[in-house]
Protein 1
Amino acid sequence: MLISLNWLKRYVDLTESAEDISYALTALGFEVESLENRGAGLDGVVVGEVKTCAKHPEADKLSVCTVFDGVETVPVVCGAPNVAAGQKVLFARVGAVLPARNGNEEFKIKKAKLRGQDSFGMICAEDELGLGESHDGILVLGADAVPGTALADVPGLADTLFEISVTPNRPDALGHLGVARELAARFDRPLRAPASHLQAALAESGTKAADLVSLTVEDAAGCPRYTGRVITGVRVGPSPDWLVHLLKSAGKKSINNVVDLTNFALLEWGQPSHAFDLDALAGKTVVVRKARSGEKLKTLDGVERALEPADFVIADAAAPQVLAGVMGGEASGVSAATKNIFLEVAYFDPRAVRAQARRHGLSSDSSYRFERGVDPLATARVSDYLAALIAAVCGGTVAPGRVEFTAPSHPAAPREVSLRPARASRVLGVPLDADRIEGLLAGLEVKALRREPVEVGGVDYPAIRFAIPGFRGDLEREVDLIEEVARRLDYNTLPAVLPLFPLKPVELPPGEAQARAIRATLRDLGLNEALSLRFTSRKALAALNLAEGDPRHRDFVPLLNPLSEEWELLPTTPLPALLQALERNQNTQEQDVRLFEIGRAFHKRPRTDARDSGVREEPVLGIALMGEWKESSWSGQKQSVDFPRLKGVVENLLERLRIEVEWAPGSSAGFLHPVESADLKTASGELAGVLGTLHPKTQAAYGLKLPVVVAEIYPEVLLRAPRRELKFKPFASHSGSTRDVNVVVAESVRHADILDSLPAKVENLVESRLNSVYRGKGVPEGHKALHYTFTYRHAERTLTDDEVNGAHETVRAALLKNPDIQIK
Amino acid sequence: MDSNNDLEALKTRLLADLDACEAASGAGLDDLKAKYLGKKGEIYGLMRGMGALPADQRPVFGAAVNVLRDLAEERLAALEAGAAEAAILEKLSASTLDATLPGTRAEMGHLHPLTLVRDDTIDFFRGMGFELAEAREVDHDFYNFEALNIPPDHPARDMHDTFYVDENVVMRTHTSNTQAHYLVEHEPGPVRILAPGCVYRVDNDASHAPMFQQVECLVVDENITFAHLKGTMLLWAEHVFGKGTRLRIRPSYFPFTEPSAEVDVSCSLCGGSGCRLCKNSGWIEVGGCGSVDPAVFEKVGWDPEKYTGFAFGFGIDRIALLKYGIPNIGLLTRNEVRFLRQF
Ligand SMILES: [Zn+2]
């Protein structure tokens, strides 16, 4: 909402600086988002009078003028099409500095020659002076402007504008009067009522309104209060300067005097109104009713709208003329030819207006205010005021009386609300007595009626009964008044106190504690934590190369109103986002990218109760490694990421979590290499994760060029798995003896097959460790050499050579018994 | 006496040899040691020759030989120590290592900046006895809106650009849904909870992301006041932005709190005098807060006459942006390692 200081000053005397007023507005709850001093610093700009104006001899689009600036008459070349002799204009003298705008720097006026003609100054358009956006031509002032008057002294031109944000509970502040009331209370100053600006009070004469127009309200739910007035013989034309300037300050273009006055009332009271051309209303009839199917209405924005039976409209005898509370129609609007006006001021139901504004995707200044609730008690008052104003400004006669309707349910008197001073003290934490509270609320026109006890939960409490003004529809309950008390005190003056609580130990929930352990471990292993937006797409899921029936593309959760196709649904796995992140890193030539993320997977499931979301959410840990894992910061040692590297990371993680899993080689996950992959299963057989080399198809679909390995791990499954207890185990004081064996096997024989060849128990054998895998010279094609070290140890004594050799012979014999194994 | 002459001659030779050895930086030290102090060395030779002396001269001669031997041992030991020292020095100075080389570091990993802020916030409030409460990110309209006194078709819904999953199910627009869940799912009594998590709004520009993180605090008891809200928030603000941070609390509107307020902190960069960070206002908006609206207690079946409370919430993203000087919210979710490695 754009608030003009000039406008505010109609209702309250404000001598404070713009900054102080801005601070006050913010402290009152109307956050000032921007502040603009319009017309400030334009020292060399004055009112000028165009004495003569002739076509430039050598340029069609230029005029050569002479301008009197109060001191002298100078030649000026002007490019505006609307310049003419006799006009009062804003004239920038030589030396004046025009403000920077549209990215151009500020501009100093100099003596110039334009196509051979002298030009000593500039006739300005409003945008050139920062007074508005219009560049339709030069700004032409009223005839009574005096040449030589500084811009700052031309009434209404220079202004201070506050862009304030008004919360939905405060429709009263959607008009200047409401904002002025707040400032008057804060600065403890009287508020002048708008009617005090009227030259003459409402004067009625001629035929009664009720004889000129008939009103029927069929939809009392949508329209609980309606008033109509008739003004005959108006002269539709341009608005007076004061009106043009005020509207311009508030960001509204002048249209004609009648429309401008309805906009003026809207921006003054926050009360929308609508002026009809009475003679365009068929049957001189106004009906507030539901729309009928098939009816159409061309609204003022030029759009022809198909109406629905749920809509409610203002119609004449023939057809809908206004989408009630939202926008008027072209057919019955006020035009230059209009002579007689039917003026509507009404209270429309907030929900009904909101519903139809949304139905038609149309939000207007009117609907915005009706949705939030206009003053239900001010309808007639605004009707009288605006009718008088129209007659005063546009001429014409106000017909006696109003045609009007009031639903029985519509309030006729202010609402009353009780406030217990003790409750206010208890909520705010500051002692407050009745006198203080009454004094504070009086400034907001919330009047104390009497002191009378109020009963709450069977107990009588001392209380004050307040009458709530109609414009404060938000004040319905005791707590609403308590907030007003706090606001009047200024929140910043309230004390800050620490609450006292009994001691209580607080543990992290298991999931959170586990998440912390996962993050810390993976960080310590050299991985970076990623955080992705939790949106994905069918396309991104398809690019994973998932198998038929894979849960990752089953029961996913699409959004009804996604931001884009790329973010059309909620993820079922963190992998697409991580793979996309790898690609972004690839684009910046990163060679070593190690990411992990504890993301979230969303799946549809049956609702458990009426208020259930019907969506299962669970954390999923994703790991994605790409490129060459640098072993140290600069030695150049590095190794392409591969399955063992990733498996090691996961093993380290599980070691830290103290969870043991079974590794099942060859995962069925479609995005993994079928051989270089594995499933993780907990002791109970639950799938705890999958990991492996990225499938070449997935790799290609995500445009990844370097080697990539990925894992997906399910923290909730791990949370259910038993954790190894931390318990000391005695260790042998003897070092033990080692024996090495080199075995040569075909590529198809796995490490696990070799170890499986050993008997379940070999006396004193405590460790069988793989040291290396070798292919190449000395090893036949299609084979590999594995070097193992076996450690033999007795818990209490040193073994003799014979004992060690005996045990090792058992191992060798067992290996040799396997026909696939050769010992070198 | 021959033997005494021999002794003197030996001493002269010994001293000459020792001086020579010393001059040669200990070269030939081992030979010298064998020559004089060895089993077959000259000093032992004198000892053995002592038998030829008259018995009365033997003690005097023996003592003189011992003196000579001590002298030899002492000088040789000193020469040995000197030689060892020299050898170490030589070895040390032979190193060609360039100590200006960078250390051999492992590539360390990094936590996301939002995790740093989130964990810090959790720990701060946990230290004061707040329990961690978690709620769903996809939730029924009831918990995200209705229980929080935001009925359907209420203009307050305009403050939330909501992602819908279906007519009644939304991506939560704030962590306040946790309040509703907690109060519905617990018996009336004292409450001190902290709810961090991701929230969603239909918004995407330089300063708004469609997903961001919030933390919400809720305190309920029989005598909780607005003053307690201010006291608690001030502690938090000082923790995050440093001692001496001031709060500015200005009226606002949230249907689930009343009084409702927006919270600004004094700008940590300029201290309040105005700078680019605070857009010359001296203040930085960090969150919203208020006393729990009695309507919320009514909706969830708690006695609004008996219980009062406060809630406040702030954006973790916003705090991280301020704290680490991150210029653009989009950087937080691009997951570029050149960004992540900085934290
Ligand atoms: Zn600052």
Note: Residues 3-93 of chain B form one domain.
Protein 2
Amino acid sequence: MNLVTVSGPPSSGKTAVILKTIDSFQKRGLEVGVVKFDCLYTDDDVLYEKAGVKVKKGLSGSLCPDHYFVSNIEEVTQWGIKEGLDILITESAGLCNRCSPYVKSVTAVCVIDNLSGINTPKKIGPMLKSADIVIITKGDIVSQAEREVFASRVNTVNPGASIMHVNGLTGQGAYELSTLLYDEKVEVKTLVGEKLRFSMPSALCSYCLGETRIGESYQMGNVRKIDMEDKKKKS
Amino acid sequence: MITTQDIQQKTIADLFDQYPFLPGFFEENTLEVDGQINEKLDDFLNILDDEEEKENRAMDKAQVIESMAEYITQMLAFLGEDEDEGVNSITLLPGTNKSGEKEQFEELTINKSEIVCIVGPTGSGKSRLLADIEWVAQNDTPTSRTILVNGEEGDKKWRVTSGHKLVAQLSQNMNFVMDLSVYEFIELHAQSRLVEDVEGVIQKIFEQANNLAGEKFSLDTPITSLSGGQSRALMIADTAILSKSPIILIDEIENAGIDRKKALELLVGEEKIVLMATHDPILALMGDRRIVIKNGGIHKVIETSGDEQNLLSELERMDNVIQNMRTRLRHGEIIRQEDIGF
Ligand SMILES: Nc1nc2c(ncn2[C@@H]2O[C@H](COP(=O)(O)OP(=O)(O)O)[C@@H](O)[C@H]2O)c(=O)[nH]1
Ligand SMILES: [Mg+2]
Ligand SMILES: [Zn+2]
Ligand SMILES: [Zn+2]
């Protein structure tokens, strides 16, 4: 089985792009499955079901969805193998710009859209910077110049990535993407012992533990404060 | 190729001097140099090894240096490309249509400064043809077509590197979304292309765009308040002059607020290969050839004949008649028999 992690800011077009890519996989007779990770709510699973693929969803609730992802990815992988999938795709809503769900040996795809503004690439952390493939969507509604500027900004923060333009509505580019995602020689059996591409912050503060009151005396554990000085201090 | 060893021990000042595009990399990666310009890169990046900074920035020193070396390598390659090494032609070799039958042509070569129209009903496979060209298909797409660049098997770099897109697209539903003036917009695009004479390019694009637009606009007009015709004029002028892509794909040009003939002349003059999906007879006859698509495959390639070209001026006259009537109506005038002029 092949495994692919797809991540990206909310509404960037992840589901749309995955659905169009699934079309291409299905035409080649491949068995596809999707696991959708989200925080509180998702109905993407319904869309995937309609596309005729096996689906699982996981809601992280009170946890950072990326932490939740890593805690569950091995179980999900075993599920995919048991179902006899050729390719398992995970979709996770990159809600936490600090974390990213990418595992070193697993193809990492980041979906980001042209409408999000040219300063977005620099604001997204490892989710963009350590992806293997960056998909840029919604090129159909912006000018050629804006697409070029946006792609060059993405290239500056992740020069090693393959950058592709895919239209989530028409599926233009999705066939081509599908050829980059599936390799019949790859066989994932387990992720046990594999490593994340970038460590996730482990910090726990009082509020993680259920504290609701405001004030310094209630704050324990990993507490960080804004630097309120006028001049930024230089090391 | 630039390796990490090549840059690690150099000072940031030296690196900026040697690679004038490098400050952009620092900025996009939120690395502030301030007073540390004379430090060695390796020492400067030591801050990233600090636990707290590492958590804050989510960057890893080794990864940043590697990324930087890759970026410098790419930019140098990009800057070193000569115009002569560019794309002079693309050649299509036949694949199959949806029924698996061979396409109805042997070999189709399109040279720069040529205009080829693509016609056929919706869903007939126009998008797939364009996608094949963009992907430099090598018998590895659903149509089994092959696309040659300059008569040779295309380089895979066209597929996934941001600075090397074979096709630039202009279509009807594209808008400007940035909050910038015309000047700032072209400036931003020029900078991202590492253009040297930014000011000169801005003037050139601005003049050309106004030459195409029915109603003139100024350099300080916000791009989002341009009319449809003005937006298209600016997009076409900008793409013709600044886009590095050798092929321009146009999906119809609406006949309002823009001189379409001049627009095509500009693109052809900038030595682009122009592919145009259109069913507008005036645009179609401006093309040198038309590719007819049917059932997912190329069904026919029609050379625009002399007779057809002679009809073009008549068609243009009819078009002017209608444009004039529009103007008269807009000004509250009455339409008369002589306005038709037959
Ligand atoms: N115009 C346009 N809309 C798109 C494109 N890709 C996705 N969308 C739309 O953007 C919205 C969000 O897409 P979705 O796939 O749900 O995003 P996700 O939250 O990242 O999974 C939907 O309304 C899509 O139809 C695209 O390439 N062009
Ligand atoms: Mg989704
Ligand atoms: Zn997180
Ligand atoms: Zn907390």
Note: The mean pLDDT of chain B is 90.
